[in-house]
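sorry to bug you again but im stuck and you know this stuff better than me. theres a chain ive been looking at and ive put its sequence and its fold in token form underneath. id like you to explain what the token line says about the fold, in plain words if possible. anything you notice is useful, everything is just below.
___
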Amino acid sequence: MTLTKGTLTKLGLLSSLYLSQGLPFGFFTQALPVLLQRMGLSLPAIGLSHLLALPWMLKFLWSPLMDRRAPGRLGRRRGVILPVQLLSALLLLALAVPAGGPTIPWLCAGVLCINLLAATQDVATDGLAVDLLSADELGWGNGVQVAAYRVGMILGGSLLLLVFDAAGFRITLTSLGVMLLVATLPIGVFREPPAAPPPPRESPSLSYWFKRPGAFSWLGLLFVYKAGEHFASGMLKPFFVDPRGAGLGMREVGWMIGGVGFAAGLVGAMLGGGLVRRLGYRRALLGFGTLQAIGVLLYALVASRPVSISALSVVCGIEHLTSGMATASLFTAMMESCRPEHAAADYTVQASVVVAATGVAAAASGFSAGALGYAGHFALAAGLAALAVVFVRVMFRGMEPVRVRG
């Protein structure tokens, strides 16, 4: 399709919102494991720190409220997004106040609260995306979603690792809060189109997903599709800095993720988003899922021998490329299966299943790496990613995800 000015405006707004989610989540998933490794925490403890993402798993509980709320003066979606992002930025700036940085308990508590706010923003943002994007724009919209989220994660993760290495906690957290404030400007000037809440008789009940034909098969696919990849990535940053692994310094880790990972993930997200409608959802999920499993397996091969920085860079690029393609295809299929009038609730139910699976997988990753070593752990993760492809082939043979959009 031709990208019109109106489409580009929508994509620009959504880019800023998904980047805003990626900023704190990048710090949590990329920078925090490295810092905890340097502080001497065990691999199981680092793995369990991923449970701080619990609000992302439970956001489906309050997602119907986002569809039921009246538009108000700021707008139905904007009225949630704007204050939540401002509150998140203020919380980050508050964590930066202590001169020596927050203690581990306060840091974890802050991360948990910010995840709660970001998960709430995500519900409203996904609803806004479904409201704004036409069926022909969904592929590009989800490519931009994944790409912008990855940019945010790179800025909040690898870039801030470099800042932390040079300036410490106070400047790092202050920088994160300021970046989030800047990313809030587009939604601040945006004027949301008028939208009425759904009629009371059509309140967006979660029970819809228990009655929908094929829903359990589809939710099962969502549960397994990204779990293997996150089972691997839960230990990837500790592997980078562990002397028993790659033994990289924080500066090298920052450039590895921020340079190689960012570029490859950006290309993968846009490529996957652009191809998914042409291939069809089933073929895209099968093809990109297979590539994702291969990308994870390459980490096992690198970890099984003395680590070469050049080889690790190539593997990191391949894995981020394939992961971006797989994620964009999955998110596009999820949006396509949403009822427009209940977009926030429908998308959030699906996203919560994905996050629950990936969170549990990441939390368990430390126990696996501790027992099997890094090479064995990555090989097991690749096997789990391959099983997800088998699930797609078996459960959706000749089928597409349930589609409700034109």
